[in-house]
Write the structure tokens for this entry.
Amino acid sequence: MVKNEKTETKAVPAIGREQIAQAREVLGRYRAGKSPTDLRVLDNRRFMNARIKGRPTGEGEAPRVVSAWLFNCIENKLADMMDNFPEPNVLPREESDRDEARSLSSIIPVVLDSCDFEETYRAGCSEKLRCGTAVYGVFWDARKAGGLGDVDVRLVGLPNFFAEPGVTDLQASRSVFTVEYIDRDLLKEEYPALGDAERASGAFQDAGTGSGEDKAEVVSWYYKKRQNGRQVLHFCKFTGDTVLYATENETEPVRAPDGSVIAPAPAESGLYDHGLYPFVVDSFIECGEGIWGAGLIDLGSSAQEWIDRGNSALLKSMTVNAGPRFFVKANAEINKEEFADLRNDIVTFTGSDPASSVMPIVAQPVSGVYLSILQSKIGELKETTGNRDVTSGGAPAGVTAASAIAAMQEAAGKNSRAINKQTYRAYKKIVLFIIELIRQFYDVPRRFRITGRRADLYAGGETPPDGYSFISYTNAGLKNGIENGYRLPQMDVEVTAQKQSVYSKMSQNEFALQLYSAGFFAPAMKEAALKALEMMDFERKEFVVDLVAQGVGETDDAQAAPFADAGGRAVPGVRRREETRLMRTVRQKVREAPSPK
């Protein structure tokens, strides 16, 4: 009797050596297509580093004078961008999603602060201005918050990010790759079953980051597939031809500790539910290289080079003309040591005429036309980079009135405002990615500390004694919807400046005082004030309209007195009453506003 033996076949993973070889081939094409951009970025960094350190830019090049005009232009633009640091305001698309949008507007700044986003934003703006492109990654980090997980926003190194050459929209790329260089021993600690990881490629060593002998090249591969009628984002992490992790290889559903299924298998759902590459590319100047842009170094490097050459020539001429120089015959009958020492009042010689052996060298001073050319090159650099003197606090000769200087600064700042709006568009995409990650992963209630004006909304309208409130939040409203459970709430994002320049704060504070003096916040003036506000256009208009609309109080005509403006003049039709919470809030905001230094 023969016993039938049942053989079990092991499932072949969807992503293996063959798929990794194909991915590496695609990565090689992407690298080749991006190589002109990488070389340009590397040249820009070397150019700027040479000027910061005062060193020549080429091998064998003689030391020369270098200046920091271009560096100053970039830093001024960066200061403008940080003066207008963005803040998100989440807006609902449906009436029933108002509360959800308000909560998201309050917690997203807290989430960004936990990522140290202000430093990330500054580094990204600097990279954008210098090299033309900044790449932000918006990920879910399961290790944060003590294992609970949270959103992580970080800057991705431009030389280590690759997308399909020629595409102008990152989401249209067939694949996206990021490359990391990790110490081999650390990689083996994280993946004990890993063999000898291949050494880093030559591209890593050429980047000037260090030797690649003890580093392993780890590639993160993002790609999209059409599954079950929708677009799914998949992810694979590999080194050499070894797969470290792949969503398509994870066929088991995600289970809770009690065994219940809490999420479908990654092979079905992919990496993130939103199905998009979790990257935001913020490019500066379109230069025909797809999603990659050009920066201020590309615009101003030529003018900066000529400024340095002109400075070197002028200083050399100054050195030549600063002290006397002489031709002396080789057989001159004079004491050369005494002659060269300017401290000597008497110089000895033999012979009849020392003038026949010594002749002064006559140097020609530099013509004023060359100084004019140098100044024109400096002016060209300022105009090219949009960094006129008035934007840096200077003023033309003869202009002394503060209002005139402020008006010129405001007009000259249109270039900076355009750059800020461009950067805000990238920031808006980052916030939308955060909302989608919150929708997918915030299943467990989390507590948030809310500060600033939003803290008043969660404290019954009154400012808390310590200045902040606490709220609890989950993704239940984002996941399940509110009306019939068949739709997912969608949000829009409005970006405003969280930190503004002193001039902007002064203008807004003055405008608030003017509204207050005109009686806009008095309950009896509510209808007239709302009609006037409808014809106005200014930043955060909706917030002011809400303040006026909510400022209705009871009027005690027996004890009422005419309402006076800031100059003590009575405003007709407005009576003074007991101060409402709304008016106290307005006065408190005015008192808290910083005074210009």
